[in-house]
Amino acid sequence: MTTTATAPTRAFVRDRDFLRLLFTRFSAHWGNGMYQAGLAGAVLFNPERAADALAMAGGFAALLLPYSIVGPFAGALLDRWDRRKVLIFASLLRSATILATAVAVGTGVAGIGLFSLALASEGISRFIGSGLSASLPHVVEEKSVVAANAFAATWGSVLAVVGGGCAIGLRALTGADDAGSAWVTAVAALGGIGAAVLAAGFARGLLGPSTVDEPSNPALAVARGLADGAKAAWRTPSVTAGFVALFAHRASYGISLLVTVLLMRNHFAAGMTGLGQMAAFAGAGILVAGLLTARLIERFGRVRVVVGALVLAAVAQSALGLPMAIPTALLAAFLVTGAGQVLKLSVDSSVQLDVADEARGRVFALYDTLFNITQVVAVSLAATVIPADGRSPELLVTATVLYLAGAAGHLLAVRKRQIR
């Protein structure tokens, strides 16, 4: 096990079970980054295909919205079945869907057919992510969960950025057409295979759930999943307040993401190279957030850290995003993504520490479901008004206002529910 949350990181990274879960996450996240970058290149920066803002919004909807249906299933299963088995089979199934996507890309499949395969793969990915998060408290002591979660989530996100970089580099070798994009996408399947192999090394039952609070009828268990997750989140004031902050972040981030992709593709003409630079700066922001979040929470408390992150993101959106120049856009990516990671780590720790183990998987599933919907709605609305080159000061002002509204909403939730 581990020492305290303030102890050096090396104290808990020496634990064998924590390391195995960590490398399972690394493999899965690397595959995610590789897959998403490969698919983005295939659809957005492929000379054989073209996608406008509305088509991009449709892609987001196809990838994320249907997970609101998958979410209750994932939550119920994570709180009912051995999470080790879930991680193994979900990782292998994701690899299979990635290979199917690669075949579809290589043969020129587009539209609903391609998005359906991407939907299946990304839905399983969310399932794996929730399982990894719900399992963490079983491999570290309670007092070390915040630090361990910050370390694991941060370096996992960095590995996703590395995976994206690998996709961009491999794309330069294989070509930007359908055939080259298919090879890049196929390589991402190695991430899921590696995650399954690593997860298989856990002892049965080690990752929980330690207590099963589910009806014997599986169908009824699934039906209860979303409602139970909502009840558990509402009964936990720190989680409720954190959700308010993350709603604002995901909506604002969705707008910024659409603006950024269109600027890089159509205004700056920077292509995948520009998007890779943006991802590198975002990855650096994630890394810094991971190094600082646990210490910031310990010193200032979760409430001040969350509000501070939202205000920082608002300032970055307005002061650095509005000039719409590559240097300021890169710095904005660093600050906004870093602030978003601080928010995520804060809310993750609230769920892991304050929600009972028998409901934790369902809360994480609800977490993903609601925030996917929020991001898709924001992107879809933005796509109806954004110009083709992505230059829209009005949308960046809207994103800034959303961050400030999130800070105010978080403080209001704190005051009403008396959180410190």
Secondary structure elements and their pairing?
Elements: H1 10-13, H2 16-44, H3 53-64, H4 67-78, H5 83-106, H6 112-135, H7 145-174, H8 178-187, H9 189-199, H10 218-234, H11 237-267, H12 271-300, H13 302-321, H14 326-354, H15 357-383, H16 393-417
- Report the CATH superfamily: MFS general substrate transporter like domains
Give the topology string: H per helix, E per strand.
HHHHHHHHHHHHHHHH
Indicate the overall shape: globular
Give the beta-strand count: 0
* Structural class computed from helices and strand pairing: mainly alpha
Rg calculated over all Cα atoms? 20 Å
The percent range for helix content is over 70%
Give structural notes.
- This protein has 420 residues and is mainly alpha-helical.
- The protein has one domain: Growth Hormone, Chain: A.
- The protein is 80% helix and 0% strand.
- The protein has helices at 10-13, 16-44, 53-64, 67-78, 83-106, 112-135, 145-174, 178-187, 189-199, 218-234, 237-267, 271-300, 302-321, 326-354, 357-383, 393-417.
- Helix 2 packs antiparallel against helix 6 and helix 12 (271-300) crosses helix 14.
- The longest helix is centred in the middle third of the chain and has 31 residues, at 237-267.
- The radius of gyration is 20 Å and the shape is globular.
- The chain starts with 9 loop residues before the first helix and ends with a helix.
- Residues 1-8 have low confidence and may be disordered.
